[in-house]
Specification:
It contains 12 helices and 27 strands. It is α/β, with parallel strands linked by helices. It has 3 domains: 252 residues, HUPs (Rossmann fold); 150 residues, Ribosomal Protein L25, Chain P (Beta Barrel), CATH 2.40.240; 115 residues, Ribosomal Protein L25, Chain P (Beta Barrel), CATH 2.40.240. It has a 7-stranded mixed sheet with strand order 12-25-26-27-23-24-13. Strands 21-18-19-20-14-17-22 form a 7-stranded mixed sheet, with no helix packed on it. A 4-stranded antiparallel sheet has the order 4-5-6-7. Helix 3 links the parallel strand 2 and strand 3. The longest helix has 16 residues. Bound molecules: adenosine-5'-triphosphate and magnesium ion (2 copies). Adenosine-5'-triphosphate (ATP) binds next to helix 2 and strand 8. Belongs to the class-I aminoacyl-tRNA synthetase family. Its main location: cytoplasm. It is found in: Cytoplasm. Keywords: Aminoacyl-tRNA synthetase, ATP-binding, Cytoplasm, Ligase, Nucleotide-binding, Protein biosynthesis.
């Protein structure tokens, strides 16, 4: 394998190792909130965190940031575990939940109160917001800010004991209401919420806030480098403040480092929007093959290797930028070009009768399973008198530069003979029903005669007698606009691609009816396809188009 491409985070780690900062330890974490399915943006973070742990002989923790019970569910936990594993990463013994630290977090909050570094505020959310100020205007102290330590401890214990209604009190860190950084204006660190938690049940009616929980969870797990996206740059002073106050009780003070999040064209990346697409039926669930969730791209036909290649290729930096969807698709093409066996599928069949081919005759044509891998061998594709070709490979009145079949013209049937179109049969509406051809018996591929005559067109086909009918789902990009959030008057749903899913019945080589769920193939001249992992039944596969052979979206 090629060595990983360096980046600024690797430089920091290597410098830390030279300076002996962590005694050579590298401990990272991937901390999803279980409030939705993981998407391709998360994959960037997963590959980064697990990749660093792998390359520096450390470990990467998978930690559920489950402090917000109203939006969190076990279904999401399960799907996240499944997706990280599918991507090829292993958290070993380091599967953690922020909720496992609720007791500690509570204890540390009392510790802050005793130091005079936190207080119970009895203003409501509205009043707190009003006093918080704006970017240009400093905040104002709450009238409860100077409560005595003993009173704060008493109130906080009673908050925990369930004596107060939701929203009546909060615990706030006592930092600086005049700070230019709004995150430091006495952020709320605990609130009262009577909500059933998917792991701790009804044990708690107060829950810690993200910023307070996150840094402490990192410290308790002895994380060394806590990597997050750039939006958290302004939260870093709070991360450091909390750990500084608790330096006598937490085991270490991890370093928060920010990197640019993945922005990918032709898609939306926020969980809120993905949930909206699912709940309003714009897609067929979280794992709809058009979704950019990891469950979705998996069903679409993406391989874990292609996603890891993508993460490697886009790199890690401090500057926000957009990555074109074509980059992701190219990674899949590269991976599958190498590993997907070739097969023939006729997606839009047109019947061809070879007039001079004997009625009951049949012969074997040999097609390589991979054009660059002779060791993969060849398969037999039987030829007989009636075959199917693609409708698009015939034009009654050929346009300029069209080298496939038209009346009087010749093409090569791949792995077989040169044929010539002699007549066209239409129905009463002028619709083409079938065409008649003759073949030249001296031109069979692989024989000495094959080179005798050159023709420009080379098309795929299947013998009608052997072709199997299967369902094929032709997927395309879910959005028609590169920046869905920018168009449609701000409504990304106005950018949905109305032609992103087309279901068709195709003819395929007989062996494909034995395809197992998640078997991938290149359908020659069409693209890469995968047997759907949900809807494929024994002997009855359903294929999804993962990606076409070439990018037809332009740049
Ligand atoms: P969303 O904004 O889509 O709701 P989130 O950031 O709230 O996602 P989390 O579950 O909190 O989702 O994310 C877990 C980790 O994944 C975080 O460390 C976060 O920084 C990272 N992450 C999320 N989105 C991206 C992205 N687009 N690019 C890179 N990393 C991301
Ligand atoms: Mg989040
Ligand atoms: Mg977010």
């Amino acid at each position: 394998a090629t060595p990983p491409v360096s980046n600024f985070i690797r430089s920091i780690i290597e410098e830390d190792n030279r300076a002996g900062k962590w005694n050579g330890r590298v401990e990272t974490r991937f901390p999803p909130e279980p409030n939705g399915y993981l998407h391709i943006g998360h994959a960037k973070s997963i590959c980064l965190n697990f990749g660093l742990a792998r390359d520096y002989n450390g470990s990467c923790h998978l930690r559920f940031d489950d402090t917000n019970p109203e939006k969190e569910e076990q279904e999401y936990v399960d799907s996240i575990l499944d997706s990280v594993r599918w991507l090829g990463f292993d958290w070993g013994e380091h599967l953690h939940y922020a909720s496992d630290y609720f007791d500690k977090l509570y204890e540390f909050a009392e510790c802050l109160i005793s130091q005079g570094k936190a207080y119970v505020d009895s203003l409501n959310a509205e009043e707190i917001r009003a006093l918080r100020g704006t970017l240009t205007e400093g905040g104002k102290n709450s009238p409860y800010r100077e409560r005595a330590i003993a009173e704060n401890i008493d109130l906080f214990r009673r908050m925990k004991a369930g004596e107060f209604a939701d929203g009546t009190h909060v615990l706030r860190a006592k930092i600086d209401m005049t700070s230019p950084n709004i995150n430091l204006r006495d952020p709320v660190i605990y609130r009262i919420r009577r909500i059933h938690h998917h792991r701790t049940g009804d044990k708690w009616c107060i829950y810690p806030m993200y910023d307070y929980t996150h840094c402490i969870s990192d410290a308790l797990e002895k994380i060394t480098h806590s990597l997050c996206t750039l939006e958290f740059e302004d939260h870093r002073p709070l991360y450091d403040w909390v750990l500084d106050q608790l330096k006598d009780v937490v085991p270490c003070h991890p370093q928060q480092i920010e990197f640019a999040r993945l922005n990918l064209t032709y898609t939306v990346m926020s969980k809120r929007k993905l949930i909206e697409l699912v709940e309003n039926g714009f897609v067929d669930g979280w794992d709809d093959p058009r979704m950019n969730t990891l469950a979705g791209v998996r069903r679409r036909g993406y391989t874990p290797e292609s996603i890891r290649l993508f993460a490697e290729r886009i790199g890690i930096s401090k500057a926000d930028s957009w990555i074109d969807m074509g980059v992701l698709e190219d990674c899949l093409r590269e991976d599958l070009n190498d590993r997907a066996p070739r097969r023939i599928a006729v997606l839009e069949p047109l019947k061809v009768i070879i007039d001079n081919y004997a009625e009951d005759s049949e012969e074997e044509c040999l097609a390589p399973n991979h054009p660059q891998k002779p060791e993969w061998g060849k398969r037999i594709v039987p030829l007989s008198k009636i075959i199917y070709i693609e409708r698009g490979d015939f034009m009654e009145i050929p346009s300029k530069g069209y080298f496939r079949l038209s009346p009087g013209a010749e093409v090569r049937l791949r792995y077989a003979y040169i044929i010539k179109c002699v007549s066209v049969v239409k129905d009463a509406n002028g619709e083409i029903m079938e065409i008649h051809c003759t073949y030249d018996p001296d031109t069979k591929s692989g024989t000495a005669g094959a080179e005798k005559r050159k023709v420009k067109g080379n098309i795929h086909w299947l013998a009608a007698k052997h072709a199997q009918q299967i369902e094929v789902r032709l997927y395309d990009r879910l959005f028609a606009q590169a920046h869905p959030d920018a168009g449609g008057g701000g409504d990304y749903k106005a950018s949905l691609n109305l032609h992103s899913k087309k279901i068709t019945t195709a003819y395929v080589e007989p062996s494909l009816s034995e395809a197992q769920p998640e078997d991938r193939f290149q359908f020659e001249r069409h693209g890469y396809f995968i047997a759907d992992r949900k809807d494929t039944e024994p002997g009855k596969p359903v294929f999804n188009r993962a990606v076409t052979l070439r990018d037809s979206w332009g740049k």
